[in-house]
Structure formats: structure tokens, C-alpha cells
TrEMBL record:
<feature type="domain" description="DM2">
    <location>
        <begin position="19"/>
        <end position="97"/>
    </location>
</feature>
<dbReference type="Pfam" id="PF02201">
    <property type="entry name" value="SWIB"/>
</dbReference>
<dbReference type="InterPro" id="IPR036885">
    <property type="entry name" value="SWIB_MDM2_dom_sf"/>
</dbReference>
<protein>
    <recommendedName>
        <fullName>DM2 domain-containing protein</fullName>
    </recommendedName>
</protein>
<dbReference type="InterPro" id="IPR019835">
    <property type="entry name" value="SWIB_domain"/>
</dbReference>
<dbReference type="InterPro" id="IPR003121">
    <property type="entry name" value="SWIB_MDM2_domain"/>
</dbReference>
Length: 100
């Protein structure tokens, strides 16, 4: 069930939802991390979040910060720490812009 705000955004601009769920050919760095040649932005974010949780990469003092290991650093621009709020934007950089 989608939250009311998400339903409103999708109803007003269905392209936003399409950009999240359309399959895209991945660049090699992201392909190695995800293990697939095609995935949606939403699917990719879910895989990254699962990896962070499975490897206990959230900072123990501040759960809003992720301490990147070598594998995660490759896809997050080589950064040692990343705020959770920055994750979607950093992942989005790997996906090509849709031509207008």
C-alpha cells in the first residue's frame, strides 16, 4: 500500500514512478556490486540497503551514517562515510538521464 503523499506524486507525474522502476543497463562498477546487468533504481537502492544492513555498516553511534567498506566505496564515489539521506542521490548518479 502506497502512502498518500506518494500516491499524489505518482498521480500528478507518472514519469517519476517510471524512472524508479524502469530497468536500466548498469555501468560496470554497479553491475559488479549488484550482480545483474539490468536493474531499476529502486531495486538497486534496495540491494545497497540490504548490503549495508547485512554487513552492519551503519555507524554504531549515529545510525544516520554509513561507514563504507571497500566494495561500497567503489559505488559511492570513494567516500569513507555517507549520510543515509545522500544514498539515493549517490546511487542516482550511476543511472543515465532520460532524454527529454
Amino acid at each position: 500500500m502506497l502512502p498518500q503523499l506518494v500516491k499524489k506524486v505518482v498521480a500528478n507525474n507518472p514519469k517519476k514512478l517510471a524512472n524508479l522502476i524502469d530497468l536500466v543497463n548498469l555501468p560496470s562498477t554497479l553491475r559488479d556490486f549488484v550482480g545483474q546487468s539490468q536493474i531499476s533504481r529502486l531495486g538497486c537502492f534496495t540491494r545497497v540497503w540490504s548490503y549495508i544492513k547485512a554487513n552492519n555498516l551503519q555507524d554504531s553511534n549515529n545510525k544516520n551514517v554509513v561507514n563504507c567498506d571497500e566494495k561500497l566505496k567503489r559505488i559511492l564515489l570513494g567516500r569513507f562515510q555517507v549520510e543515509l539521506a545522500e544514498l539515493p542521490a549517490l546511487i542516482k548518479l550511476h543511472f543515465p538521464k532520460e532524454p527529454k
